[in-house]
Amino acid sequence: MCLIALAYMAHPRFPLIVAANRDEFMDRPTEPAHWWKDAPGIFAGRDKRAGGTWMGITRRGRFAAITNYRQMQMQFPAGPSRGQLVREALEHDIDPGSTNVYAGFNLIYGTLGQLRYHNNINGEDFALTPGIHGLSNSLLNVPWPKVVRAKAQLAHWVQQPAGQLVEGLFTLLSDDTPAPDNQLPNTGLPLEAERAASPILIRTSIGYGTRCSTVLLVNAKDEVFFEERAMPDGMAVTERFPIG
Known about the structure:
Elements: E1 3-8, E2 16-25, E3 30-35, E4 42-47, E5 55-58, E6 62-68, H1 82-91, E7 105-111, E8 114-119, E9 125-127, E10 131-135, H2 145-157, H3 165-173, H4 191-196, E11 208-218, E12 223-230, E13 236-242
Antiparallel strand pairs: 1-2, 1-10, 2-11, 3-4, 4-5, 5-6, 6-7, 7-8, 8-9, 11-12, 12-13
């Protein structure tokens, strides 16, 4: 993922609300969200090249989602695919001390009642606090313009009637407003590329952009709603299931 906005323990009906966009090269082979045959408890999309995923949830109530950390001046190991770490976090607890073999990342993971945040940039690993959080390609809640916009819009939609929540979150995820140049982060990209990567929804002419948008809701009865909409065709996968 390249943008995750979530409301954690911040809504009376939905203890977990997630709105997320996956940004990737358009030619990278991908399977839409489905129940995995080799890990039947996992519901997630799948990277067909490396076999991992960017975001998923399990029947046992584990959740994980990852974003890459973008800082071109830093050197990271080639390492295994970071999508494999998401699978590991969906299946069982991870060892935060062993994650320096991967290129830079941020990970939200754990059981729905005990979500955690971890990165391998400064090694932070801590329990996610109740509230609204945003994550892009820097650390948790670093106020990049797209993160600020996403958190503000999420805060708006969680105050609206529950029947408006899903479409409201997809509206959030379709925001293609670029940031002003004077607010762009300095990650080492050329200015034009930094500008192109600044919206919540990314579209470029170089074969890279937002591949799918996902809304995940878990209600107080431990019932999951998961909808993924692919880009650019808008094909949707929707799944509902109880945890337990």
